[in-house]
Amino acid sequence: MMPLRSDRLAAWARTFAVQGSWNYSTLVGTGIAYAMLPLLRRIYAGDPVRLREAVERSMGAFNGHPYLCAMAVSALGRLEQDGTDPEKIEKFRTALRGPLGTVGDRAVWAQWRPACLLVGILAFVLGAGPIWSAAIFLVLYNAGHFLIRTWAFLTGWEAGLSVGRLLKGVWLERWSGRLWPLNLLLMGVVAVLLAARLMAGHVAAVSSIAVLGLGSVTALAAFRFPRQGGHMAAVLLMLAAVLWFVGGLLG
Questions:
Q1: Which domain holds residue 111?
Q2: pTM exceeds 0.85 for this model
Q3: Are 185 and 140 within one domain?
Q4: DSSP string of 135-189, one letter each residue
Q5: Consecutive sets of 10 residues in the chain, 251 residues long: mean pLDDT of each?
Q6: 105 and 54, same structural domain?
Q7: In Å, what is the CA distance from 179 to each residue of 3, 149, 152, 223, 238?
Q8: pLDDT for position 204
Q9: Do residue 126 and residue 190 come from a single domain?
Q10: Residue that is last in its domain, among 135, 167, 199
Q11: Residue 10 and residue 130 in one domain
């Protein structure tokens, strides 16, 4: 039977717990099976033997970025619905592990999380206070988190076997290539503002608003032109070091 919208919603919600039963034997395999269960129950309704076989098949060893595991859950569920040969499903499952881990780690852990953290730090440096700064980080980070998880699930269900090809050149890959200069620029802006605070009272302090405005413009330019953005970030970091050194001499 075709899974209902409510079944797909339940499977998507369960992907948040995909690491809940992590172990050294199957890694997140049991979490994948748990998330797929609403889909499998609908697909194999009235056929407990095939349902059991599908659940056992889904519990095999699997690993990947926890947010992109939603893509594996929906894509594998789509193959079960289409009646794909179990051996082909297993091969597809094995082939999916590497790309889901690599793309997710580069885009989320290496780029998106540091960018959100730097925005929170920047807010704190500008006087937002610790609670508001933490809230800014959490809201911004989880907005991206929910977007990635939802996109991954919907894409996996629609693409099925074709999901592997879609991961090549996917927007996550392009964004991770554009976020690294933005991260450098944010570090540069934070460093300049800290240096300006160090120099306060000795020489004319650098205006926080002016630095923030400059940082915003250069950040947008860096996102559009990553190579040039990296150069601009290096200039900001060097400027921060100079200000810090001068401030130390004057202190």
A1: 5-167
A2: no
A3: no
A4: HHHHHHHHHHHHHHHHHHHHHHHHHGGGHHHHTTT-HHHHHHHHHHHHHHHHHHH
A5: 92 96 93 96 94 93 94 95 92 88 88 90 85 94 95 92 76 78 78 68 51 63 63 64 61 56
A6: yes
A7: 37, 19, 20, 6, 20
A8: 44
A9: no
A10: 167
A11: yes
